[in-house]
């Protein structure tokens, strides 16, 4: 990345270097701190939403960007954007659209490339309890409230 960064600067390229998906190099945060990597993309599920609050704060203090990765998991679509209010260097929400029966996501809207987030408990996500009770009866599992 040092060689790439140097080459990019010599050639007037302002593209950001981002890394962190999958098996990220353990030195990645050090590279972000030193300005070699511009954006960190660790997954939203592991290390997790709360861990991203800490990671984002550290990246902000170094002037690096945050772009939590969420490919392949539906929940990442809905929770990642909520970090944007807490992380100054938040770059974007990775959105992989999928419909999940019995999962009400109608409070989320994407218009002209802009995601509108709900201001509601539980990230504004709701289960359709009647759907889940029906499926539980059919397939041997149930949903209950505590």
Walk me through what this model shows.
It is a single chain. With 146 residues, this protein is of the alpha/beta class. It folds into two domains: 1-97, TIM Barrel (Alpha-Beta Barrel); 99-141, no CATH class. The protein is 32% helix and 11% strand. The chain has five helices and seven strands; from the N terminus they run H-E-H-E-H-E-H-E-E-E-E-H. It has a three-stranded parallel sheet. A two-stranded antiparallel sheet has the order 4-7. A two-stranded antiparallel ribbon has the order 5-6. The N and C termini lie far apart (50 Å).
CA-CA gap between termini = 50 Å
What percentage of the residues does DSSP assign to strands (E)?
Answer: 5-15%
Question: Could you say which overall geometry the principal axes of the C-alpha atoms support?
Answer: elongated
Major β-sheet strand ordering: 1-2-3
Helical fraction equals 25-40%
Summing up helix and strand content along with how strands pair, one would put the structural category as alpha/beta
Task: List unreliable stretches of 5+ residues.
Answer: none
**CATH topology type of the largest domain:** TIM Barrel
What would a concise description of this structure say?
This protein has 146 residues and is of the alpha/beta class. It has five helices and seven strands; from the N terminus they run H-E-H-E-H-E-H-E-E-E-E-H.
